[in-house]
Amino acid sequence: MGKISPSACIDVKDGTHVAKVVLMPGDPLRAKYVAEHYLENPVLFNDVRGMLGYTGLFEGKEVSVMGSGMGIPSLTLYAHELFSFYGVEAIIRIGSAGGIADSVKCRDVLLAMSATTNSAYSDAIDLPGYVAPTADWGMLKTAWDMAEEMGVRTSVGSVYTSDFFYYPNAAMKVNEKAKAVGLMAVEMETAGLYLTAMADHKKALSVLSISDHVFSGEHLSPEEIRDSFHEMMEIALKTAVRTEVSE
Ligand SMILES: O=P(O)(O)O[C@H]1O[C@H](CO)[C@@H](O)[C@H]1O
Ligand SMILES: O=c1cc[nH]c(=O)[nH]1
């Protein structure tokens, strides 16, 4: 029999550990890329289901990076296990998003202050009315300061976290309605991350990179995506090592 893991879907390898702040891209291969290109001495701590997770050093401080998979069910499963079983205190999602506001352009970084969603996830919190999935203010402020210092074109606003990448009924015009109430971009995880952090009494932030525009049809080439992701990752890493955690 193997060792007993405290969690169902992450199995931290013997002799490794998870840092108190974790960066989470949707794609586990992006986690590997970040570990290999940005972290000193990265050590693989998880590879269950190929959801690669590494811990290393950035600016001399420990930080982890691990894939979340796509969509709220996948991200919230991993985020809850990290928060509840591995001592993680803050998660920063680093993901791509489709622009919906006219003011948002490809390559922009978008800091998600809040996230509206069509997911039923918040129903489980069972509070009368609607819960407002919101970023941690301290992390949001730090990310904004880092982006300003780096001179990166950055927006702060509300995103739409959708359970659908492909809507089965296009006539619902969901992206048009999201745009009409001022939501800036669409992606698939942020609301779940913020609600999980809220329920687990932890901190979270989504730092997004605009990879395409839903209405203008503008989209980046793979090389351009790599360059704009670089800015998002730098902002997220600088925020991670400045996030207040327990000693
Ligand atoms: O780039 P990532 O982090 O995967 O995020 C976006 O890309 C995926 C869809 O292509 C969804 O996960 C969406 O949220
Ligand atoms: O979820 C996503 C991510 C990028 N672009 C989109 O249109 N949707």
UniProtKB/TrEMBL annotation:
GO terms for biological process: uridine catabolic process. CDD domains: PNP_EcPNPI-like (cd09006). GO terms for molecular function: purine-nucleoside phosphorylase activity; uridine phosphorylase activity. Its EC number is 2.4.2.3. It catalyses: uridine + phosphate = alpha-D-ribose 1-phosphate + uracil. InterPro entries: DeoD-type, Nucleoside_phosphorylase_CS, Nucleoside_phosphorylase_d, Nucleoside_phosphorylase_sf. Residues 20-234 form the Nucleoside phosphorylase domain. GO terms for cellular component: cytosol. Keywords: Glycosyltransferase, Transferase. Belongs to the PNP/UDP phosphorylase family. NCBIfam families: deoD, PRK05819.1. This is Uridine phosphorylase. It comes from Porcincola intestinalis. The gene is deoD.
